[in-house]
Amino acid sequence: MDNLAQVLKESWTLVEEDRDKIAGHFYARLFLSNPQLRQLFPVQMTGQRDRLLEAVISAMQTLDDPERFDEFLRGLGRDHRKYHVSREHYAMVGEALLTALRTAGGDQWTIEYDHAWQDAYAAISEKMIAGAADDPNPPFWHAEVLTHERRGRDVAVFTCRALQYPLPYRAGQYVSIEVPRYQPRLWRTYSIANAPTEENVLEFHVRAVGAGWVSSSLVRKIKPGDLLRLAAPMGTMTLDRKSNRDILCVAGGVGLAPIKALVEELTLYNRTRWVHVFFGGHSQDELYGLTELYQLAAEHPWLSILPSCSVDDEFTGERGDLAEVLARYGPWTAHDCFVSGSAPMVRSILRTLAQHEVPPANIRYDTFGDL
């Protein structure tokens, strides 16, 4: 695996700057050779092209960790059942992907690279197929919207209940959501914002991102009574109940969702671990969930909340970027750390934690920015 991983990374370095070209050629070849597959994809492909490369990059990042590599791919296989993917589709996708990589690599694409990607894709597809076959749950759940509340211009908090079958998940995980009424066959991932309940109610926090098709529908269009589809839960930003380390949570904007779920789970059993939540935004409007956090802190002495704003002159609390605020406190070396927010925010927090010499094994994070 070590030599294969090295060759794959070397070949990816050759073509990674041509991501748009790879994605465009991949879908063109896939649909031209297998026109029946087009119906499995959304009518509007804007943003969909990036999904292929996100999966490739994520797989590349786990190559050096066989256990994480296996877990990621099995989860990906389970998740792809929502697209009605069957075993025979994997060979079609593999052929189109290899052709796209060869085209992007041009004369510098070697036989060694080609064989490495063939071997890697065979292993990837085998693990994904196995993950899909081993999952006893349905490919997706139908869910009814129960409540919907706007929190400012671009943010909504809504709840829904899965119908027919309970949706099992752990606090900190995320699911893919489809809005069949407005954006059929277009799925985007969102973290669940509450710990599991007996009533099987799930809460979500969504920000409408630009012209995002799904996020705009979830914020501006859906209402109680509407039906959604939820795919199988994924993600490993979950609590280790065997750990006795104190906990640091850092949330930016709607990155609060999984952090809130983790805190709710802790309220069910925690008695000995101090929990520090840093919640930041550009302005006070982005601190939409402070009331609920303060209520939890009032009921649980081990929980502390520290909000901050980076550009709001009227805010009387901590000022500055979230990473700057976090750096004023600590040290965090002996904490389990959970980070959730935009990709730039997460990167800055991870740099701060590295400066505090927090072991990478003690850090779990999610990035937001879905369309």
Automatic annotation (TrEMBL):
Pfam name, any one: Globin
Domain FAD-binding FR-type positions: 138-240
Family: In the C-terminal section; belongs to the flavoprotein pyridine nucleotide cytochrome reductase family.
Cofactor or coenzyme needed: heme b; FAD
Keywords carried by this UniProt record: 2Fe-2S, Heme, Iron, Iron-sulfur, Metal-binding, NAD, NADP, Oxygen transport, Transport
InterPro entries, alphabetized: Cbr1-like_FAD-bd_dom, FAD-bd_FR_type, FNR_nucleotide-bd, Globin, Globin-like_sf, Globin/Proto, MRET, OxRdtase_FAD/NAD-bd
Domain Globin: 1-133
GO molecular function annotation: 2 iron, 2 sulfur cluster binding; heme binding; nitric oxide dioxygenase NAD(P)H activity; oxygen binding; oxygen carrier activity
Family annotation (PROSITE patterns): FAD_FR (PS51384), GLOBIN (PS01033)
Catalysis performed (reactions): 2 nitric oxide + NADPH + 2 O2 = 2 nitrate + NADP(+) + H(+); 2 nitric oxide + NADH + 2 O2 = 2 nitrate + NAD(+) + H(+)
PANTHER family the UniProt entry points to: NADH OXIDOREDUCTASE HCR, PROTEIN RFBI
Protein name: nitric oxide dioxygenase
The UniProt record lists the keyword Electron transport: no
Keyword NAD: yes
EC number: 1.14.12.17
Catalytic EC class: oxidoreductase
SUPFAM superfamilies membership: Ferredoxin reductase-like, C-terminal NADP-linked domain (SSF52343), Globin-like (SSF46458), Riboflavin synthase domain-like (SSF63380)
